Amino acid sequence: MELNNDEIRRYSRHLILPEVGLAGQKKIKAASVLCIGAGGLGSPIAMYLAAAGIGKIGIVDFDTVDFSNLQRQILHTDADVGRSKAESAKETIRGINPHCEVVIHNTRISSENALDLIRPYDIVVDGTDNFPTRYLTNDACVLLKKPNVYGSIFRFEGQASVFAPHLGGPCYRCLYPEPPPPGMVPSCAEGGVLGVLPGIIGCIQATEILKLAIGKGNLLVGRLLLFNALDMKFRELKLRRDPACPVCGDHPTIKELIDYEVFCGIEPTKEDENPDEVTVQEMKKALDDPKLGIKIIDVREPFEYEIARIEGVPLLPMSELQQRFTELDPNTQYYLLCKVGARSHSAVEFLREQGFKYVKNVKGGTNAWSDEIDRNVPRY
């Protein structure tokens, strides 16, 4: 894998590093990386890997660019809103380095296609934001003996590691044997994230990938790096492989990919199947006709209520519901509203446990109201 004169000029600052040199840059060019996700983490990862000269970058993402992505997903611009993230990523990467081959996989990674997607690549980098895909990526990498460069972010905190049992370290399951209950850990859409945080964690992941490519340095194998942006502090935890791990342990029981939605407790649902949900159109009818006797309650937090509120809908924050539910009448019918429907679903379950029989969740929350009823209510 030779370098031409243009590449020698481009990578000159690498070539004069004794730890990289010409031989190391050739290894970087020969390396192939599959980036699962072209969002907050995938953006800095893909951009810096392309700039560094990784020869082949695969992008797995089935989503489209939304305005709310632009605060942190720097692969994409205003002009890309509504466009395939994979296509947008390819265009940006090729603009950074035309010597980099970009292969896009505009699909959702699943148990059916994960092994085929991962097998042709040397290194896998996890830029996802949900537990089923993290466990799927982990298990596929263990089965194929591929290093899994892991990162995750939430609000002001992030973490990174390299899971590679074939290199003597643990896998993701050794750290987290079981996923948290569904809804226990809010998504970035629910909990928020500081825009620069994925840039920091993604750059750490990209650093580990380059070290893997050139075979130099002390990798984050067997170590979990924790970062707190508010305190500007890094901490490190030592990790050990679990001999009883079902996928990388001494006697593995998982020898093929499983149903990760079920493993993470996410039940498959069909449209219009949930009797505890109502649409924003049904919510509007209840607001327009007080004679129906249906009350709407917003369970978001006060700072969210300031961003976007719906006239006639009072606030009772989810964080105060356990202390204040006695203010509500268990014989009244309530529709509960949040941003996208996740917290209000939990609020419905809580109130049912307290004896409320007539509570329903507004599907899609304020975002759906903004999309389908009143665009003057900000979507955030």
Write up this protein.
The protein folds into 2 domains: 31-263, Rossmann fold (3-Layer(aba) Sandwich); 277-372, Rhodanese-like domain (Oxidized Rhodanese, domain 1, 3-Layer(aba) Sandwich). By secondary structure, it is of the alpha/beta class. The model has no long low-confidence stretch (mean pLDDT 94). The strands form 2 sheets. Strands 3-2-1-4-5-6-7-8 form an 8-stranded mixed sheet, sandwiched between helices. A 4-stranded parallel sheet has the order 9-12-11-10. The protein has helices at 5-10, 12-15, 21-30, 42-52, 85-96, 114-118, 131-144, 172-175, 188-191, 197-214, 260-263, 280-288, 302-307, 318-324, 342-353, 365-372, and strands spanning 32-36, 56-60, 101-105, 123-126, 148-154, 157-163, 223-228, 233-238, 277-278, 294-298, 333-337, 359-362. It starts with a helix and ends in an 8-residue tail after the last helix. The chain has 16 helices and 12 strands.
Structure in a nutshell:
The chain is of the alpha/beta class.
Summarize the biggest pleated sheet.
Answer: 8 strands, mixed
Percentage of β-strand residues: 15-25%
Globally, the shape reads elongated
**End-to-end Cα distance:** 47 Å
CATH topology of the largest domain: Rossmann fold
Give start-end ranges of low-pLDDT stretches: none
Radius of gyration: 24 Å
Q: Which CATH class of the largest domain?
A: Alpha Beta
What count of domains describes the coordinates?
A: 2
What would you say the CATH architecture of the largest domain is? Answer: 3-Layer(aba) Sandwich
- Content-based structural category: alpha/beta
Order of strands in the sheet with the most strands? 3-2-1-4-5-6-7-8
Name the assembly state: single chain
The tally of helices reads 16
Relevant CATH superfamily of the largest domain: NAD(P)-binding Rossmann-like Domain
Number of strands: 12
